[in-house]
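Q: What does the predicted 3D structure of Aconitate hydratase look like?
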Amino acid sequence: MSLRDEQRDILTVGDRQVEYYRIADLKGIDHLPYSLKVLVENLVRNEDGANITDAHVRALLDWEPAADPSHEIQFTPSRVVMQDFTGVPCVVDLATMRDAVKDLGGNPEVINPQVQSDMIIDHSVQIDAYGVDDAVQINMDIEYQRNGERYQFLRWGQQAFENFRVVPPGTGIIHQVNIEYLASVVMTKALADGATLAYLDSCVGTDSHTTTVNGLGVLGWGVGGIEAEAAMLGQPISMLVPRVVGFKLKGSIPEGVTATDVVLTITDILRRHGVVGKFVEFYGEGIAEVPLANRATIGNMSPEFGSTCGIFPIDEVTCDYLRLTGRSEEQVELVRAYAKANKLWHDVNDPDYVEPRYSEYLELDLSTVVPSIAGPKRPQDRIALSESKRLFEETLPGYVGNDTEYDPVSVSTAFRGDFEITNGDVAIASITSCTNTSNPSVMIAAGLIARNAVARGLRPKPWVKTSLAPGSQVVADYLAQAGLQEDLDKLGYQLVGFGCATCIGNSGPLLPEISEAINAHDLTVTAVLSGNRNFEGRISPDVKMNYLASPPLVIAYALAGTMDFDFATQPLGQDPAGRDVYLKDIWPTNEEVERVVAGNVNREMFLKDYASVFEGDARWKGLDVPEGELFAWDPDSTYVRKQTFFDGMTAEPAPVVDIHGARTLALLGDSVTTDHISPAGAFKASSPAGEYLVAHGVEPKDFNSYGSRRGNHEVMVRGTFGNIRLRNLLLGSVGEQIVPGGYTYDFLAMKPTTIYEASRDYIANGIPLVVLGGKEYGTGSSRDWAAKGTAMLGVKAVIVESFERIHRSNLIGMGVLPLQFPEGESAQSLGLDGTELYDIEGIEELNQGRTPKSVHVSATHKDGSRTEFEAVVRIDTPGEADYYRNGGILQYVLRNLMAQ
């Protein structure tokens, strides 16, 4: 009898009984971290005797904290969540797979999500209108005008596919909707024999900040859209059991410090420690004092830590939050009973409590946290607020150019009047993002600062684009009920939409006069946002320096109008009596914030706002939706096009082959993020993507964003590696000027050109391509197009010093080979400048069912000399080897489904 059969048991919850898989009495379970206990339950429940066996479970129970990851398991998430930027390509691929199945003589309806899959449309709203009372309605009207084709397609998908739901636009941000409504913590399903099975909620999502749900004790993390599609289709995720970092929190947050300051501090600590590929788990007596909203804020930033997850265990705080957010009392009791029965309940005062063992240990005394911001281009670069002015002044010279104007520049606008702007001025101050708008304490704090600022006669500077984009309609409810929205409105913080907005790059245009002044005088202006991402070129094409801050500090910087500001010594302005007003004069006390939260955030708000969450408004219901099991592709559509991944696909995969005569498409430095690779934000008519759309009759004003056009591979491949801050060092290697953006050198045409045009030339001549890079290649959001676009450009291998976890996996999922330079070596140390011809041998060993630890790389220089080295093959699991042999994960899944 297998463990799966042995451990099936009955759990009594109140006056009902449910079945569950008991792990509490398994030998070795007591000292396992909470997160690994979740994996044990997952393995026991999904054991099939082939991919998951008793041996896999027992190996996990015998986990050695100090050991390096080596044991492979198959994790089967209970559900998948998607946002629309990455979710639309998922549905495009599923629809294309149906066509491919039909072409191969199969039944298209075998292609359906096998687990509950939810898409929240939250990434498409842009801040076109702001500072006016009807900004929400204006922006939503424009959103539907821009995205009607995509939304019609998604409504078709909602009707055509089983187990697929869509949360319409204007509802909220995926991660906030996830913790406030979708997540169950413990799920149930009806069995064929009439019984009910209770099991742990877990999920993967197409957004790296899926880890927000870790705050609820739900194990989940961000994956590429490619992995998510496989999970939707019933494929487990192959992973190595990770090292687990135990992070003890103690003490309490001091006066004047926010949850945002805490999370920026934790991000700083964990980045310095090094947690890439590891689980981070918070434990100890102190976490009982950490509110659920703060836990979610901390979990949200796991991608910024670099960890796979940042999880808190289930306890009474979890149950209180479930009750507050409208879950039934029956559900709350199920969570409590299940967690206690399976030794998943966290209570250090329980006499039976056993402290977990961890691979590594860290600790933070919350009383030591100080107000902080992070920037100007990475979320882990924390700056104490008291040091912000000095460090800004030290950093600014690295951003100004030869043409930069240092004297103030006059600007005249009809909307905000006449003023002068200069380097360092805050052009955008946006309260936005899942990191903070899911946390009532920081949102109420922002509202109270607004109230106090209005009372003292303060106003934001006229050049600041102000915006408030909450992640949930509940936020709007409690701000209104507390009477704070009126004060926010007076500062220009009217609601602009319910979605990701500024943090995803949808900050919308600056006033034309401001934009023209910035570009004409090469000014270095800044953005301050309450988000989690501030990578170069992400927030606005007009803004060079981006800083993360808490919502109340966002307002403070809007009042100051510049990053060149010391809040301790400089007044924000004067009150009507002419007295100086400092930040300390308008900052609310912790007790005041807590009192307003307690009096204005209630269960009824959540019940009301989520009562019809999948229905949508009149705009959504009025969409003209096509019908049928196969999608009727419109050949003229510039938003949704049938993918080419399956063109010419055969029932059996062809053998993999070594790479010969490859050219370098890009030679890149350290910390190249997926934001540098994957197209996002706005683009110009002169770009390859812009030229494509113009040729198809689209006016530049109707381009929309790359994110909104993710369902059109023709647009996306043209934007890959097109970030305006990308520096392709290959240009310098051939004596050309290194022009920031998507440019390279074409060795066939012997001239500099765009990366897209060069790739077309190489593909037409049958020449494979490689990309060379440095450390931390692919950090950033888990975006499928960073890998899809790389593959579609003809890149066969990426050779770097180190990879970010998700991007490495996604490259394999698209049939691109991830390789690492030998330990301690780099392109520079090996004397490689990208002008060489590359041969990579040893890949064909995969055809014998073996994954080589390394392959031989030979780089032939212009003079005929060679540099040779052994590159480490970063195909880390047998499952990934299967994907690579099949040319990608989708081809692997499709072939498997056809064989059933």
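A (community wiki): The structure tokens above were generated from the sequence. The radius of gyration is 27 Å. The chain has five domains: 3-61, 79-368, 383-611, 659-678+726-899, 679-719.
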